[in-house]
Amino acid sequence: MNNKKVYILEDRAILFIQGRDAKDFLQNIITNDINKVNEFNSLFASILTPQGKYLFDFLIIKHKNGYFLDCEKIQADKLFNQLTLYKLRSKVEIINLSNEFVVAAISKDKFLEFDKAKALSGLTIRYREDPVVLDPRNKELGARIIINLEKLYLSLKKLNLTSSNVDEYYELSHQLGIAQIDTEKLKNQLFGIECNFEELNGIDFQKGCYVGQENTARIKLKNKLIKRLFPIKVISGTLEKGTIDYNEIEVGKILIKGRFPFALIKFKQINLDEDIEYKCGEATLKIIKPEWTK
User: Fold this and answer.
1) What is the mean pLDDT of residues 96-120?
2) pTM over 0.85
3) CA angle 15, 137, 80 (to 5 degrees)
């Protein structure tokens, strides 16, 4: 990522959670430890089904007397409804601020130009009162600014940043094995731990109970993790959802088939050599090995 470029992530949404019970409310349902979130640190977390299957993922950033949840925009309404379902009698207010705030991504090198910035995943600083977060999933993905829409273009001008094609950002995210687009295609299709949330700093195995915790812990402690979500690269043909085969043996299935495809791979049954070609219907593809596999 070029330190002169900024990527306006118009496909992201911001929910805001505040109220007397906001901290305990989130702690009881998310996979990570809300106690790690403060003015100087943000984190990545998810909400799972009671069986431990994937539902939603998001970044959590402390803001004033509450928390920003940075999520995929097409998931925002469903996430809002899910949070409301869990709210019950909790003293919590949930607000969709997507019309007021926007998410802008910058390079890690640009982040390091800010005062007091360090190359620590999740490190959070402020620029003109807006949070700037070095991505807690992987610092190589750069940082993101949660910024008031009214201040956006003036702030970008002051920072000497030029708006660029967001596909550059999402291509990097894809190479790093971080799915951010079409994540609704993952719902109930795999366990949260199969999404590599442990490697992406999204699961805390030391915190107390949360929704889906029992199966997540069992898979981890009994070493039953045999499938993982991997980015794939199409070599030829048109990719459709279906099974992935190697020498007529099924080794995985396509879950996200869009611009930046992902598949659930039986990684213990195959050699994760990036030169090996696989078949999915008429398409030929390769499995990308993110850095956490090496």
Assistant:
1) 96
2) yes
3) 20
